[in-house]
Amino acid sequence: MQVSDTAPVASAGVALGEPGGNLMVAITATLKRDLTLMLRRRGEMLNPLVFFALVITLFPIGISPDPELLALIAPGLLWVAALLAALLSLDSLFRSDYDDGSLEQLLLAPQPLAALSLAKVAVHWLLTGLPLALMAPVLGIMLALPAGSYLILALSLALGTASLSLIGAIGAALTVGLAKGGVLLSLLVLPLYIPVLIFGTGAVQAAVFGDGVTAHLAILGALLAGALIFAPWAIAASLRISING
Amino acid sequence: MSLRLHARKLACERDDRWLFQGLDLEVRGGEIVRIEGPNGSGKTTLLKILSGQLAEYEGELFWNDTPMRQAREHFLANLLYLGHAPGVKAGLTPLENLKWYQALSGETGNETARFAALESVGLAGFEDLPAGQLSAGQQRRVALARLELTPRALWVLDEPFTAIDRDGVAALEARLVAHARAGGSVVVTTHHELAASTALRRIQLGQGDNLAGI
Fold first, then answer.
1. Tens digits of per-residue pLDDT, A27-58?
2. Mean of the pLDDT values across residues B193-198?
3. d(CA A236, CA A116)
4. Do A101 and B120 count as a contact with CB atoms less than 8 A apart?
5. Measured by CB atoms within 10 angstroms of the end CB, which terminus of chain B is less buried, N or C?
6. Per CATH, domain B1-78+153-214 is 3.40.50.300
7. Measured between beta carbons, which residues in chain B are less than 8 angstroms from residue A26?
């Protein structure tokens, strides 16, 4: 540092500023930052996908290769495995930011914390939920899932994992201050995951049996809308509590 | 508008132990306030309270005579807090780190300013290395570059001299004095002895006089 006493100090540096600034700049920068970070740690990003693929691969071996039986349980299997895969990746959502002090800075940013945490959750969904949804049809083939239900499977998972990311982020924010918050996190958010699981598998089952899927998808959409409205505030409040501890 | 951070009868309890009680404190523009005290005397906790991170305390906190709760937004727009952990992402380059911090305050900023800020903290040539490959002192310097980059009136710095070499310490000290001289204020904890200056005030923690009010 070569700052001397005589160095010109920007006079703007000491005038009191007014709150303001562009929220969109902060949100896009946070999106970009988290995406860059995750893409630079590919191994961590691939973890949930590998887990998902492994679990689904093992089931036909463990149960029976009978296509009829597999097709019957496939919607539930795919959904449960995807849910657990998404859950596994949640613990790291705020962890590294907490450890290196960025989380403190995020809380002190003169921008609404709810909006910034929503950006972080969006990245989590883009890099776990969405890939899981896209991968599920491929694994569906392995479970002899009838061909007509692939689109519904991917769609229900895409909608559902977005809710899972939002709800899970509340738990992740609450447990980020704890050294071993992983188990507690699972216990906290699993009960809240159940409605999403029920309507998610419901949609796929309905598609398999040729029933109407719109109702299930609509409810998944409603759950997502609800989560989008309430979760950001809950995440922000939880982060404040965690930092307070 | 002038700057005034003002605490009245501040008290904080941790694990059934009072860290401080009845602490009155005032920070005005042009001042460097050094919080002193042995390890575990609550310096970091006090800084976290003063920077609006901790809500579990007794007493009142005012920003420009408005209670902190109501003035929070205005306060945050004028605060630069550097904590114990430098808040530098190991996976990002110094430039990317600074860019995010600028964006957090809603500014796009420009690359030239970021390069200049990094150069001013002696990190020229390290702009595009992942911060994880830098030394602890260099990572701290990345955080300190924010002092140059983001103009804020109130600096709250928790042990900013940690891991910094001797030249860096001198430069940072000069930077603090310059900031105070220009009308800004600095609240700092450090075990490093700051050169005496008219702007410097000390607040002692972990001693009997703060506990007088029990």
1. 999 999 999 999 998 888 899 999 999 999 99
2. 74
3. 9
4. no
5. C
6. yes
7. 103-106
